[in-house]
Q: What sequence folds into this?
């Protein structure tokens, strides 16, 4: 009887890592990212706590790549220097835009209490497809509201 118990325990031990679910972004669900970005995304999430880490959602098509990067923590890299002040999104939130050849980037940075957050929504490609600059701005602001709300 003991050898059978040992074999079962060994099999369960080997299968345990496969049973763990992928880590979820604490500030934005993958479904919400897909809705705002207009289709399926891949997620790369490194968020050890609810107020610190990074979530990157990527959507690639034949003509475009859309990347949403969200960071939160005690110190996050500056994504906006200057920019337009936004009301109702955390504290002292600012928005800035960068246009380059075949790239449009909306960035928002702010803080909630002592936690800083930054997000960038970048569209790269030879056509801006469904996420035109106005839609990209709206999506970035919606995401910033979600992030700030989850940090309260």
A:
């Amino acid at each position: 009887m003991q050898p059978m118990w040992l074999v079962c325990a060994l099999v369960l031990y080997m299968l345990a890592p496969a049973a763990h679910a992928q880590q979820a972004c604490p500030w934005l669900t993958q479904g919400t990212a897909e809705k705002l970005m207009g289709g399926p995304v891949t997620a790369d999430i490194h968020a050890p706590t609810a107020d610190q880490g990074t979530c990157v959602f990527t959507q690639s098509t034949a003509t475009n790549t859309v990347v949403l990067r969200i960071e939160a923590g005690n110190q996050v890299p500056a994504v906006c220097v200057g920019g337009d002040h936004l009301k109702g999104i955390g504290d002292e939130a600012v928005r800035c835009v960068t246009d380059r050849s075949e790239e449009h980037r909306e960035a928002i940075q702010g803080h909630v209490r002592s936690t800083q957050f930054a997000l960038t929504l970048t569209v790269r490609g030879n056509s801006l497809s469904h996420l035109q600059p106005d839609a990209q701005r709206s999506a970035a602001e919606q995401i910033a509201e979600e992030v700030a709300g989850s940090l309260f």
Q: What stands out?
A: The radius of gyration is 19 Å.
